[in-house]
Write a structure and sequence with these properties.
alpha/beta; Protein-Tyrosine Phosphatase, Chain A; two-stranded antiparallel sheet; globular
Length: 261
């Protein structure tokens, strides 16, 4: 269920997603979103008072988190964790500090093969050792959290999307439902997409890269599929990845089951 927030893109409660054995994620416990930096006081009140938010996990890299920090002051009583996952900006086009990240060689690559950049990004996200440590910490927070947990990156699509796929798989959700949730992002990342366009416009590149922008800012089955394929190659399956790469064993999956009913 999408949450109608004023300053937060792509926010949704995972409640209601069904597992393979007929259970469902309990509403009000697990929330994914885009950037929190523009959250309004009304957004914070809703998340705290209506959703019971108690924990926020920021998956962005250090530069992103420093440039657009989470508004801690709005979220009194909420525990914040900064857990960086792979810096996806090194493969794509981002808007940070008013600058276009990357050289002209990257721009040419973005124009010709944006989908390959994103597929490589997703693959690196699950194979990179720092990212694996980050995802392990992410699960540690979920296991210890009391109340609603929200995790976010910049658009709530890539890093938050892979994190969500891992959580749903750990809860016993099947691959079709995981992909369905991932693709729901399309149509709910307008602010992020516009930020990329504004940056490119400053360099007179917006029209030249319009098609690439659509690819970079969309949720595409091929992108998450690249991450899932990489997990399967390394560990046999996403379940194997959870156990072998992240150390999520049967007892911890049983503990996570409190998020389902």
């Amino acid at each position: 269920m999408f949450l109608d927030l004023e300053g937060v893109d792509n926010a949704r409660d995972l409640g209601g997603i069904r597992t393979r054995d007929g259970r469902a994620v309990i509403p009000g416990w697990l929330v994914r979103s885009g950037l929190l930096a523009d959250a309004t006081p009304a957004d914070a009140r809703f998340l705290i008072e209506e959703m019971g938010l108690r924990t926020v996990i920021d998956l962005r890299n250090t530069d992103e988190a420093s440039a657009r920090p989470d508004p801690h002051a709005l979220f009194a009583g909420v525990e914040f964790h900064h857990i960086p996952i792979l810096d996806t900006s090194q493969f794509g086009v981002t808007h940070e500090g008013g600058k276009l990240r990357g050289a002209w060689g990257l721009i040419r690559k973005v124009k010709k093969h944006p989908e390959l950049i994103m597929m490589e990004t997703y693959e690196r996200m699950v194979l990179d050792e720092e990212s694996r440590r980050g995802f392990r910490r992410f699960f540690d927070v979920l296991l210890e959290a009391k109340g609603c947990v929200l995790w976010h990156c910049s658009s709530g699509k890539d890093r938050a999307g892979v994190a969500t796929a891992l959580v749903l798989s750990a809860l016993g959700v099947g691959p079709d439902a995981i992909m369905e949730d991932y693709l729901l992002t399309n149509g709910h990342t307008g602010t992020r997409s516009q930020g990329v366009r504004d940056t490119l416009a400053a360099y007179h590149l917006e029209k030249r890269l319009e098609g690439s922008i659509r690819v970079l800012t969309s949720a595409d089955e091929r992108f998450l599929g690249a991450a899932l394929d990489a997990m399967a190659r390394e560990c046999g399956s996403i379940d194997g990845y959870l156990e072998q790469a992240l150390g999520i064993d049967a007892s911890q999956r049983a503990a996570l089951a409190r998020y389902c009913g």
